[in-house]
Fold 2-aminoadipate transaminase.
Amino acid sequence: MLEHLFTETVQKTMGEEGYGAWRSISAPDAVSLSFGFPYPDSFPNEELLTAARDLFAEEGDVALQYTGGENAQSLAGIVAEQAARRGVDCDPEQVVLTNGATHAIDVVCRTFLEPDDGVFVEAPTFMGALRLFEGYGADVTGLPMDADGLDVSAMADELAARRDEGRPLPKLCYTIPTFHNPRGVTLPLDRRERLLELAAEYDFVVLEDDAYGELRYDGDPLPPLKALDETGRVVRVGTYSKTIAPGVRTGWVVADGDVAEQIDRMNAGGTNRFTQGVVARYCRDGHYDRTVAAVREAYERRRDVMLDRLESYMPPEAEWSDPDGGFFVWVTLPEGVDTSAMLTRAGEEGVVYLPGEHFYADGRGERSLRLSFSHASPEEIDDGIAALARAAEAAIESR
Ligand SMILES: Cc1ncc(COP(=O)(O)O)c(C=O)c1O
């Protein structure tokens, strides 16, 4: 009835899947390797309960006021301290608290994007971010990736071609440089530096999504893009969803002062002060560091089991990524296999995954799929990969 009053973007995209529709991919009795969810036992229920009790004991009703109390107000400083440990030098005024990283991306979009503005993304990329960019009516271009992440040379070529031909340049480049979702890869230092040079040369914002940055299992840490940023073009988003729990819906934006100020203005009115207070107490009591260390070990074990079983069970034509951290392995099957069509057979064999097409703005990714090792137990991962191998063999044979 109100259709004609919807924005043009809503009218154009009305038939499309809603945000989070991919979460409903499941099959009875099948192991789900599709959820990018933390495993249930990772949640620090007791510690959060203690933090909430201590918060009420200390602050009483102030903890539930619009402004929150001292604990909630201290969280920006805690985020800044944690960022400093990763090499990002910022003060609390540069931290804008949000209800998770998705919300953080949303407020960055609200600050920078108008309909038809160009946005560069990695192809593939996090489907939640794609939905947001589409919701703002942005003109999204997927850039190629390889085993080292974003192909920055291809990006340089695309930018130069656009400039030479007088085509519009992007306003924003969204990237997940560390433990990419869905490809699992990490961008090396030289490419990070080159990306920032391009941003300065062509005048665009680099939106760095570091949702998984704390979850490294191998290799030496690399500086986040924001740590390398000398021109203030990097806007960084992060979240406690993967290190505490998604349900706390607490994340942040880190940006240079004047940018942070405008993002904060756009973010008026609605973050969860009570949860921010609980999270701040939780971190100050040392639970954050202890829990992150424990979940890192548990995820490393799950990743190792997944990679080992892929090696043991998968047909020789299959390829997959070798992540040093994060939640995901990206599997590519030979030409002619359609992973969306294969999902029915996979469900019958006992596994579900996310077909590759969900991660592209233009429906590519037909022969790829994303596996998550974060939610299933090591035993389930073993069963799931055996089932995936059976489904993949059948799909390869029937090409
Ligand atoms: C790259 C990336 N960014 C953001 C998010 C969402 O984070 P949040 O739960 O804080 O909104 C996810 C999780 O699914 C993700 O993979």
Residues 36, 100-102, 126, 128, 176, 181, 209, 211, 239, 241, 246, 251 surround pyridoxal-5'-phosphate (CB under 6 Å). The domain at 3-43+292-397 is CATH 3.90.1150.10 (Aspartate Aminotransferase, domain 1). The chain has two domains: 3-43+292-397, 45-288.
